[in-house]
Amino acid sequence: MPENKQISQPPTRFQGMLDTAFGRLCHGIAWLFILLIVFIVLRIATAAVPALRQQGLGFLSGTSWDPNQGEYGILPEIWGTLYSSLLALVIGTAFGLSVAIFLSEGYLATFVFAILKLFDVHSHPAWGKLPDRLEQLLKNLIELLAAIPSVVYGLWGLFVVIPLVRPACNWLHVKLGWIPLFGTTLSGPGMLPAAIVLSIMILPTITAISRDALVSVPSKLRMAAYGLGATQWETILAVILPAAMRGIFGAVVLAFGRALGETMALAMLVGNANKISISLFSPANTLAALLANNFPEAGPKEVGVLMYAALVLLGITLLTNVFGALILQRATGDLEGSR
Amino acid sequence: MIRKDVTIEQPLTPKSTEPDYGPFTDVDFPELERSLRRPRTLLSLIMSWLVAGMTLLALIPLFSVIAMLLWRGGRKLSFSLFTQLPPAPLELGGGFGNAIVGTLLMVALATMISVPIGILCAIFLAQAEKGSHFANAVRFAAKVLTGFPSILAGVFAYGALVLVTGGFSAFAGGAALSILMLPTIILTAEDTIRMVPARMREAAIGMGATNTQLVWMVLLPTALPGILTGVMLAVARAAGETAPLLLTALFSNYWIASHGHIDLMQPTASLAVLIYNFAGMPFENQVELAWAAALVLVLLVLVANLAGQSLSRKQIRE
To answer: CB neighbours (10 Å) of residue A303?
Structure first.
């Protein structure tokens, strides 16, 4: 190697220029991304303006959808969207949070470890890894729930969930029909099957985010509770859940946002009926399903009205998502502060 | 048992005579007993079993979906499905070769659009100063976009591309999917670039590397497995999306290549839309095809997912 040749050298002027150009490019792309989002919102909003002007606010409270008469209203869809999402959220949160606790407390690993100990192989080089491996497998299985496309859930709901819940629903209607919740029969697609499938789809979101929140609770809090004589569940209910509450709440809000915008499973399962009914078994409709069903065949006038409906959906989901993201941001900020 | 609770040894359980607790006179020792006769211990055990039961219950849909796909889809699976066109109503046989091609084509198109933009955006975010408001805004926008309803991406592409170019097309479908892929790519790529050890950055800067050289020669090669994981996850998500394609690419009963060249500006079939269309039909043959298509689609998505996960595991091991 020649004496004056060094491995390190200052950048040449060309490299400096290249560097500036690349930095500008990255900055520009980041701007492009922001502009894209602004453009998405603006495009939908401007496309909705003619219908907005023509239909006014009556569109939000109208209950009929008749392209032939030019009558449009999306109150049943707004109701269906909120009702199905709330139902799914109740079921999904109960199960999602349970799974998150099950995972974060390491139940499976402890259980498998105890079994291994019975056979005295818990420190065996191969068997000893089993508890952690199974724990990881369980986590991956839950995440797999999120990987299955929503149209496949729709197909599964049509051919598995609906035949499965229908006898039970109709029995409930016959026996307890005076309760408004069971006020109609389930003749096929309806609110309950849609909400069940929807809750399965949002479960991974709730589990993943609230598990992160539970795991990041400092372990000294748990140790302190055990040290005071609390049982495992007194610790979970009185110490760990309250400490992770904001993260869990953020998870629930984000899952709600996802449920509001979920399209295919609902378009296939909810029944697409323009009805407002409190009954769990009545067919209904949601904003996203309305868009999916009507857009491909809409004439130019109906497209404008559908754009208005899309704008309403955009408003609701954007608000929910921004709210959820803000909560999560503050939740992680909190925990960083406590360390 | 799965309880972590400590069993208090003999001397602490009160018998006929009050045992000597030493200086701890104000501690309620009987309350610390961990036998199942104590309601609080029993409650803890019951809750533990409840949570375990609900976790099992939550896994049932997953196994049910997979079992149904294998049973109803696997029964129908044959080579001719991949080479034939969708059948007309009441027609027997047929396949979904054009839908597989359409799905792969549109996902490839979406990947080509979103990967360069996403990675450059991630580089900007990873290199930005910590308190930069603009970077925070971009990151926040990406987070909000992850929860963006896929149908609205379709509505946007319909308004911005389908109405402008005058018809449903594979190109509009790819563009709509790319919007949904962007946030996943940006957020995972930024995370992995940030995880590159500081000493590697400092070594490169110490050698006189410019920022650009640092990015291309150190950060990107080191973070590549993680970035690819994000890309594969985004691909898996895009392949299963139906709603945006319904509004942009619609469906077609024919192959996308006409007269020897591929025309991106015509309606295009995709597996997801095929499943949706055929699931609601009253014909047995179409429903069977929908199940077979669902099996193929889920396999595609799982392969992309597993490929992504194995890549990230490789990086962790290094």
So the answer is: 20
Residue A307's closest chain B neighbor by CA? Answer: B155
Count of Cβ atoms closer than 10 Å to residue B167 Cβ = 12
Tell if the CB–CB gap between B125 and A30 is shorter than 8 Å: yes
Per-window interface: B 75-94 vs A, CB < 8 A:
none
User: B258 to chain A, minimum CA–CA distance in Å?
Assistant: 23
Higher pLDDT, B28 or A131: A131
CB B302 within 8 A of CB B286: no
- A247 min Cα distance to partner chain B (Å): 15
Interchain pair A44, B155: CB under 8 A: yes
pLDDT band at residue A339 using 50, 70 and 90 as cut-offs: very low
> Residue A205 and residue A247: Cα distance in Å, rounded?
12
* Dihedral sign, Cα of residue B161, residue B165, residue B169, residue B171: negative
Phi, psi of A220 (to 5 degrees): -65, -30
Give the ipTM of the model, two decimals please: 0.89
Measured distance CA(B180)–CA(B154) in Å, rounded? 10
Nearest-10 crossing angle of helices B97-127, A13-55: 120
Residue B201: partners with Cβ closer than 8 Å, 6 or more residues away: B214, B218, B219
In angstroms, the separation between the Cα of residue A178 and the nearest Cα of chain B is 30
Q: pLDDT (tens digit, 9 = 90+) per residue, B275-284?
A: 999 998 888 8
Q: List strand residue ranges (DSSP E) for chain A, in order.
A: 65-66, 71-72
SS3 A156: helix
Q: Which chain A residue has the Cα nearest residue B291?
A: A155
Residue-wise pLDDT tens digits, B234-265? 999 999 999 999 999 989 888 887 676 778 88
Q: Looking at the partner chain, which of A27, A111, A114 has a beta carbon nearest the beta carbon of B124? A: A27
Interface contact flag, A99 B40, Cβ < 8 Å: no
- The pLDDT value recorded for residue B17 is 57
Of B145, B250, B279, the CB nearest to A155: B279
